[in-house]
Each structure stands twice: as structure tokens, then as C-alpha cells.
Amino acid sequence: LKQQAHAEALESLRLQPNLGEGHLALGLYHYYMEGDYNAALRGLDLAAHALPNDGDVGLYTAAIERRRGHWKEALAAYERAEAVDPRNSVMLYDASQTYFGLRDWRTAAERMDRVLALFPDSFNVKIQRAYIEFFWKGSTAPIKAALESLPPNLDPDGVVTFARWDVSLMNRDVVAAEKALAACQLDTIASQTGVPLPKTYLQACIDLVRGDSAKAQPKFEAARPSIEKTVANSPQDGVRHAQLGLLYAFLGRKEDALREGQRAMELKPIAHDVIEGAVVEDFYTLSCARLGETDKAISRIERLLTTPFTVDYADESITLSDLRQRWEWDPLRNDPRFQKILAAPEPKTVYK
Fold first, then answer.
1. Which of 65, 116, 261, 296 is deepest in the core (most CB within 10 A)?
2. What is the pTM of this model?
3. Is 227 exposed, middle or buried (0-12, 13-18, 19+ CB in 10 A)?
4. Confidence at residue 243, expressed as pLDDT on a 0 to 100 scale
5. What residues are paired with 188 via a beta bridge?
6. Is 211 helix (H, G, I), strand (E, B) or coil?
7. Which long-range contacts (CB under 8 A, 24 or more apart) does 108-113 make?
8. What's the alpha-carbon Rg for the chain, to the nearest Å?
9. What whole-number distance in Å separates Cα of residue 27 and Cα of residue 47?
10. Residue 98 phi, psi (nearest 5)
């Protein structure tokens, strides 16, 4: 398939050297198949000249600039794409996610509102918009309200259940979290990071919040084969290794947890992929916090609080609101350095 995509793009350009669609196809081949950002951008630049009114070219350019951490170029590319195609919902959504990753909550919310105006029934956008409000202002009430506004049986892949479980545990409401899981018919629930989590894993987390670690352990153990299998099936997926590392941390398997976390960061270094790279760094920090590696966890939090894209709609996210509210950071609550971070205003995200 990879060779075929490459051959077809080259053949179209051999027949028509100025064909914008051919340059676009070749640029996307280099991006998705080879991870060669420079070659991809060269193809997209040629496509942009041939297809000046195609907003998608700008969208892909912005996505590549974003992934390699060129934030100003990414934002400029989104603005150009928006000028060409102001009602392109994918572009508005991606732009919102970029401002979100830079912790510019106001602009992220504004772009997300424009997506919602185009697609008022999009449950995922509704939920994510409410999370932006939480990160911005620290209240979980908008997330609860968004979830209550959804039709009762709407829950593709368990995404809605995951959000209900998540916000309930942020509020330390174990009864609501249990109710959300009991209402879900699925055995495996999709988390916002894309890693499928067995229901037993989420139930074990409820036990931890309740303070019953002994009850949690067999449930984490029951979830282990499934999460290990997701890693075995996608051994190059850093986020899956990172999630497995956190599971090992919950099981108290320190060496295994740190090994998986380090493997994740080797597979997805921030220097090459700022988005997944940031997520795996977050997971590793959570594992450090859970395993009593407090100095390491706190110094990492101080750095990651100003790092782009260490923000997510899931439990490994690092914003001031996350640190204040989420149970996963509870092992650090009595440390004066952590308390000092929580008492200060959110620092500016640092990017060039």
C-alpha cells in the first residue's frame, strides 16, 4: 500500500508536473508514511501555489508545522486556511486544538464554539468544549452539564462513559463513577488518548479514590493482559507503552513502570513529535508521582506546565486545574513544593 501510494503520486506528476493534487498526494505520503516533515512541506508548498483556493492544503501544512513544534508557522497557516475556507469545520477544530495545546483557553474556546455552531449535535465537541472551560476556569460544572445534555444511550466506544467516570472522580464522587460504569454495556472503553481500557481498570481506579488499594489490585491485575496485548499489537505506539507504564505503577511494579515510560519517551520524543511526545511525558510523570519518585515528579511538572501540548482531555493532562482537581496527583498533595505550584497562577506556555 505504501509503495502504491508513492508510485501513484509520482505517476500523476510525471503526466502533469504542475498538478496540485499530485503535489498534495506526494506531500501527504511523506508526512503520513515516511514521517519526513521537510519533504512533506515541500510538496504542500508546490500544491499551495497550484491550488490557491484549497483550504485543505493549508490545514495539512499547519498540522505538520504543529507536529514539529513550529507554533507561529502553524498558527499562521491556520489563519491562511481560515481566510480561504472559513466554514471548514476540520480546520476550525484543528486550530482550536492547537490553541488548546498552547493553553490559550479563550481562543481555543472561541474556535470550538464556531465548530459547535456548524455541528451543534457533535457530542465529542460538546464534551471537549466543556473540558476547555474546566482548564480555563477550574470548575467541573460545565463538563457535568454537557454530559447531562446528551441523549441517554449515546456512547460510541464508551467515550461518554469515560468522560462521566472522569469528571465523577475529579469530584471524588465514587457513587456517580460506579453508576456511569454500571450503565455501560461495553467491556472495553475508549479513553481520550485512544488506548482501549478494560472496564476493570476503571473500576480499580474507583477503588483507589475510595482509599481501598487492596480491592483495586486484583482488578488492575485482571486488566493487565488486555493492556499488555494492546502494546504487543502496536509495539511502536508510545502512548500505549506509557499507559501500560501507569498500570504497572498502580500495581506497584516500579521497575516495569519506569521501563515502559522510558520506552514510550524513546519511541515518541518531544523533539520529533510534540503532540504524542508530550502525552507520553505526562504519563511518565504520573507514574513517578504514584511510585514515590516525588522529586522527579515535581521537577517534571514544573517543566511540563509550560510545555505545549502536555494538555489532554484525559487523566494524564498537566494544567493547573488538573493538578488541583484530579485524584491521580493526590500522592503529591502533602508536598510543600506541589502546594506552592497550586497556589501560584498558571505560568505561560513557552513556545517559539
1. 261
2. 0.87
3. buried
4. 98
5. 198
6. coil
7. 108/132, 109/133, 109/136
8. 21
9. 8
10. -70, -45
How many angstroms from the chain centroid is the CA of residue 94?
12
Q: Which residues contact 6 (CB under 8 A, 6 or more apart)?
A: 26, 29, 33
pLDDT confidence of residue 87: 87
Nearest to 208 by CA among 240, 245, 246, 161: 246
CA-to-CA distance for 342 and 320, rounded, in angstroms? 7
User: 222, 290, 211, 299: which is closest to 256 by C-alpha?
Assistant: 290
Spatial CA neighbour of 94 closest among 133, 128, 144, 134 = 128
Give me the residues of the chain with pLDDT under 50, please: 9-10, 13
The dihedrals phi and psi of 144, each to the nearest 5 degrees, come to: -60, -45
Q: What is the DSSP track for 7-74?
A: HHHHHHHHH-TT-HHHHHHHHHIIIIII--HHHHHHHHHHHHHH-TT-HHHHHHHHHHHHHTT-HHHH
> What DSSP designation does 140 have?
S
pLDDT tens digits, one per residue of 260-302: 999 999 999 998 888 899 999 999 999 999 999 999 999 999 9
What pLDDT shows up at residue 124? 92
H helix or E strand, kind and range, residue 288: helix 274-290
Q: List 189's β-bridge partners, or say none.
A: 197
What was the pLDDT predicted at 81? Answer: 84
Place of cell 502525552: 279
3-class SS at 229? helix
